[in-house]
């Protein structure tokens, strides 16, 4: 976060920075360090951040780091107002919401929102592309069958506590 970005964020009355698609535990730690280093400026401007992880399963983010460890790190960062999941297969969202809520509760971080916006069933390939592959996203399906409807699942996620 450069001073120039923060200046423009204040000028545009930005209230929340979305820091998305973190798939590495080290990355989560660095983001928290940067947010904490700019903590006074962010507080004065009334700006917080939500941070979302991308997960390959219900236990790990894409590079294999523990979801629980990543959420604990974010729970301890005062500048983070929301923790969540994005760019993750839809069938993983409900158990991940439960995990995030449990970790936030255990860390006494009840004030943080749970944010979710999954993808439509793609999986991120966290590796070098192989011959014939042209992008890091591969279609695997929604993981929940042909009858799955995003709108219905989204309502369940909200009932579960996601914002």
Q: What secondary-structure arrangement, pairings included, does this model have?
A:
Blueprint: H1 3-11, E1 16-22, H2 25-37, H3 39-45, E2 48-53, H4 67-75, E3 80-86, H5 93-106, E4 113-117, E5 122-124, E6 137-139, H6 150-160
Parallel strand pairs: 1-2, 2-3, 3-4
Antiparallel strand pairs: 5-6
Span of the ends, CA to CA: 25 Å
- What is the total tally of β strands? 6
What order do the helices and strands follow?
A: HEHHEHEHEEEH
Quickly give the structural class.
alpha/beta
Calculate the mean pLDDT score and round it. 89
Low-pLDDT segments: none
State the shape. globular
- Strand content bin: 15-25%
By oligomeric state, this entry counts as: single chain
Q: Helix count?
A: 6
Helical content stands at: 25-40%
Q: Tell me about the biggest sheet?
A: 4 strands, parallel
Strand order of the largest sheet: 1-2-3-4
Radius of gyration: 17 Å
